[in-house]
């Protein structure tokens, strides 16, 4: 492999021939440079898309910070090159390298890949290939880094099982240290040189077994799947005793101090700003929401901690924008206090503060008004569905009046543009439900026209729903092309003037659907699609649906088996051995309630015993009080056998 | 906390070098890098008035992508008069990204003319990365300097291009080359080095890559460093 100096010498000759060479040189303020030779464990964090999208990935910011806090480990970063530079890298034999030291990725001990969405799968294979690392786990030898992955796709890791050595299920802050410790423990013993290859292979196997014993780590190669005659799963079983039958997601009991020394890119990127996560998890229980199910329980940071972090981040980075992150800002306990304090703590009016994911209610307008001095341009509301029936089905209940009142407030208090976000393809949706999106959008714009006349604008985003694993809708099928096209055509045709519509390409939806709902057999499809040129599947102009269909055909698999099949209620899912700590019984009950149009209130008001508390009761006991939005658990477990749910006292 | 008295503005002229990874960062991005560096240094930038207030930062002269420089200049306006000018260099040095070194900080008159209008010419040093026969280079340099005029196509923006149906407009590069010589060989290596002194007046700016193109040397095969910016007065 090339040395960093050799890589730099080659880069020098080619960088001026590519678009935005600043993506490929590093040198950002706050990038951490450690002495390569004196550090025991080297970790490269990889985001499998271009720099412009990867730098702002919040998960990798946290992990980069965690690893670099250790004296015995270093973390560097890598991103995927854009097509022009990829071609040049391959032609000039420049391997994928880390931006800090320019060491090729293959020199690292661990490569940690963030895979937040499924359309990054082919890119992940491409990144490994560009790094000169065999893309299949089974083909990796003693000379290769350990390939770990995490992010939201971890709740169904099966389609990627052949490529990832170990998947982190859940939150990474603590488990990443366990992984580094384990790798260190296994690299301390030098291998007998006479049997080097064999010796090291054995070592890799025992390393994987050791990793499998870390709570929250899933090592796919230690499991086997048996299928039924109809192609559904019979069982997924561990092959060795070190591998647990079910891998329970890892959580942190209390959110650790947030990172503040963010990398400041030298070029323009998306989400070019500081972020502070104010809260993790969501109590709303929207049935379509993957994050809502998989990031439980809700844990909040104090207003003081959030403000301190924002202040530190601004001082350390010089960013002109701070975004307070959560799944639902309105639900953060200290939201009013936070907004009030922001104006005092950040008197610089050039600083903009963003507060995403506000609820559809006039209080949200008050909150945004509180940030007026700092406010950014738009106001986004996400009603998701436009009829009462549909809102009950998805358990996101707001009324039309609420939406119209809120819109009126927004327009009349100085915003000219509202962005509304809806989804089509919710279970049992009819064309009347889609028509209602049109009617409601027209009404919202009419409110704007009444308040401020022709200046009022409405941007309408309509996504297509993909039922995600580990949610209440995991049993239902995705709309097929015909259904999606009919619904989208209705929207395009009927929407009034002054409304700008954005929608999801149906091919994008279908690719996302089979990749997120697939089983282990999808790995062959992904591999073949990548071999035949599929990459950047999340980019509309790069997506190659035909390649994907050919890959399915080549492996005698039917994509509709994964996408358009209503799953039996007793079906064993490909992701059944991965646990997000939410009981399947609870999820199924919630699904049934959905079919009956029954809504469930915010679980801050009433605990529905989803499973989080009995499973994480020890963590809860160690962290009593307001940090968790779950009820307290009784101080000591009685000796007598009790149903787990009875241990919960409800406030 | 709002000041009840008018803030007293100060205009600072910062000389700096730009190299390493920052060679691949363009002019607009550099502007943004200065904004953030100044904020990190804790210096209160002055903003322009109006609907979209912009920070008052003036870079003397754009440097082409890929070039390094040991002679860049930027003027910044800050809102304080309490800060010792000597401190500012240190504060800025710890706040700039890898590749910028602060060489000098001077206070200048608030009303002095904009840097961009004061620039007269720039000097560059060009290092050839590959081995080239010195005699060939000498010959090329001589031919170029002896020419009375060197017509080169103007760089026209895409949008405007369609208006020209006949031959693209040209400009004369020759008068923009004030000096072009081969430097004596360095101690460390035998690489060929060229010295260029090019005009940098508004509307009459000589570009090193244009000179290299005329010499038949691809820009990927050289390193260009700006060594001096020359201002009027």
From TrEMBL, chain A:
Signal peptide: none annotated. Transmembrane segments: none annotated. SUPFAM superfamilies: Radical SAM enzymes. This is TIGR03960 family B12-binding radical SAM protein. GO terms for molecular function: catalytic activity; iron-sulfur cluster binding. NCBIfam families: rSAM_fuse_unch (TIGR03960). Residues 268-494 form the Radical SAM core domain. It comes from the Bacteria. InterPro entries: CHP03960_rSAM, Elp3/MiaA/NifB-like_rSAM, Radical_SAM_N2, rSAM, rSAM_horseshoe, rSAM_sf. Gene3D superfamilies: tm_1862 like domain (3.80.30.20).
From TrEMBL, chain B:
It holds the Pfam family DUF2344. It comes from the Bacteria. Residues 11-205 form the DUF2344 domain. InterPro entries: DUF2344. NCBIfam families: sam_1_link_chp. This is DUF2344 domain-containing protein. It comes from Candidatus Desulfolinea nitratireducens.
């Amino acid at each position: 492999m090339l040395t960093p100096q050799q890589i730099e010498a080659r880069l020098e000759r080619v960088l001026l021939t590519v678009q935005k060479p600043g993506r490929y040189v590093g040198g950002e303020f706050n990038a951490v440079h450690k002495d390569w030779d004196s550090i025991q464990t080297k970790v490269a964090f990889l985001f499998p898309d271009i720099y412009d999208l990867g730098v702002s990935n919040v998960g990798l910011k946290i992990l980069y910070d965690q690893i670099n806090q250790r004296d015995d480990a270093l973390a560097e970063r890598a991103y995927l090159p854009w097509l022009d530079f990829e071609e040049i890298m391959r032609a000039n034999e420049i391997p994928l390298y880390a931006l800090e030291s320019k060491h090729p990725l293959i020199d690292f001990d661990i490569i940690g890949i963030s895979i937040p969405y499924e359309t990054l799968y082919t890119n992940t294979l491409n990144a490994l290939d560009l790094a000169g690392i065999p893309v299949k786990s089974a083909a990796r030898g003693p000379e290769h880094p350990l390939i770990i992955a995490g992010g939201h796709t971890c709740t169904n890791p099966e389609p990627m099982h052949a490529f990832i050595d170990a998947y982190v299920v859940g939150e990474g802050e603590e488990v990443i240290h366990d992984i580094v410790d384990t790798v260190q423990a296994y690299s301390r013993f030098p291998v007998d040189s006479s049997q080097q290859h064999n010796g090291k292979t054995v070592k890799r196997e025992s390393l994987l077994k050791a990793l499998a014993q870390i709570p929250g780590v899933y090592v796919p190669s230690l499991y086997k799947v048996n299928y039924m005659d109809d192609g559904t799963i019979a069982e997924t079983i561990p092959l060795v005793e070190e591998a647990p039958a079910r891998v329970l997601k890892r959580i942190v009991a209390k959110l650790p101090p947030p990172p503040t020394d963010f990398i400041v890119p030298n070029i323009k990127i998306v989400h070019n700003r500081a972020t502070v996560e104010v809260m993790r998890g969501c109590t709303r229980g929207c049935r379509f929401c993957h994050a809502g199910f998989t990031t439980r329980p809700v844990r909040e940071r104090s207003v003081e901690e959030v403000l301190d972090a924002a202040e530190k981040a601004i001082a350390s980075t010089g960013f002109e924008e701070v975004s307070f992150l959560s799944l639902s800002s309105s639900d953060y306990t200290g939201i009013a206090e936070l907004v009030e304090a922001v104006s005092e703590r950040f008197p610089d009016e050039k600083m903009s503060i963003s507060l995403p994911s506000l609820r559809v209610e006039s209080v949200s307008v008050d909150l945004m008004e509180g940030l007026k001095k700092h406010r950014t341009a738009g106001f986004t509301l996400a009603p998701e569905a436009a009829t009462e029936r549909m809102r009950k089905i998805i358990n996101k209940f707001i009324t039309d009046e609420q939406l119209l009142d809120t819109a009126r407030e927004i327009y009349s208090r100085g915003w000219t543009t509202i962005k509304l976000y809806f989804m089509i393809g919710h279970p049992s949706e009819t064309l009347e439900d889609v028509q209602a999106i049109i009617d409601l959008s027209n009404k919202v714009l009419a409110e704007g026209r009444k308040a401020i006349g022709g200046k009022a604008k409405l941007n309408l985003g309509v996504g297509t729903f993909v039922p995600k694993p580990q949610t209440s809708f995991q049993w239902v099928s995705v709309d097929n092309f015909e259904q999606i096209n009919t619904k989208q055509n209705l929207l395009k045709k009927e929407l009034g003037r002054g409304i700008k519509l954005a929608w999801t390409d149906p091919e994008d939806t279908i690719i996302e659907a089979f990749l997120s709902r697939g089983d282990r057999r999808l790995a062959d499809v992904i591999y073949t699609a990548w071999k035949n040129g599929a990459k950047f599947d999340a980019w509309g102009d790069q997506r190659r649906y035909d390649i994907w269909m050919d890959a399915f055909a080549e492996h005698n698999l039917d994509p509709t088996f994964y996408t358009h099949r209503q799953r039996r209620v007793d079906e064993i899912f490909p992701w059944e051995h991965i646990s997000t700590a939410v009981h399947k019984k609870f999820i199924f009950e919630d699904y049934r309630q959905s079919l009956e149009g029954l809504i469930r209130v915010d679980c801050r008001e009433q605990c529905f015993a989803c499973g989080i508390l009995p499973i994480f009761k020890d963590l809860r006991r160690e962290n009593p009080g307001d940090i968790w939005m779950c009820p307290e658990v009784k101080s000591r477990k009685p000796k007598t056998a009790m149903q787990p749910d009875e241990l919960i006292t409800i406030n | 906390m709002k000041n009840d008295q008018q803030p007293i503005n100060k205009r600072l002229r910062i000389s700096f070098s730009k190299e390493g990874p920052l060679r691949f960062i363009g002019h607009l991005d550099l502007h943004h890098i200065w904004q953030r560096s100044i904020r990190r240094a804790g210096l209160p930038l002055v903003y322009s008035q109006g609907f979209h207030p912009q920070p008052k930062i003036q870079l003397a002269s754009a440097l082409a992508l890929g070039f390094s420089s040991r002679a860049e200049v930027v003027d910044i306006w800050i809102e304080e008069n309490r800060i010792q000018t000597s401190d500012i260099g240190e504060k800025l040095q710890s706040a700039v990204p890898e590749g910028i070194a602060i060489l000098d900080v001077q206070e200048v008159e608030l009303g002095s003319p904009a840097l961009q209008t004061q620039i007269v010419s720039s000097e560059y040093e060009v290092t050839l990365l590959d081995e080239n026969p010195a005699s060939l280079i000498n010959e090329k340099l001589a031919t170029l300097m002896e020419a009375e005029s060197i017509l080169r196509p103007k760089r026209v923006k895409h949008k405007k291009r369609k208006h020209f149906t006949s031959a693209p407009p040209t400009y004369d590069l020759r008068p923009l080359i004030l000096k072009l010589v081969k430097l004596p060989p360095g101690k460390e290596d035998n690489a060929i080095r060229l010295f260029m002194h090019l005009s940098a007046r508004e509307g009459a700016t000589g570009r090193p890559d244009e000179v290299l193109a005329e010499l038949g040397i691809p820009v990927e095969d050289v390193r260009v460093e700006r060594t001096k910016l020359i201002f009027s007065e």
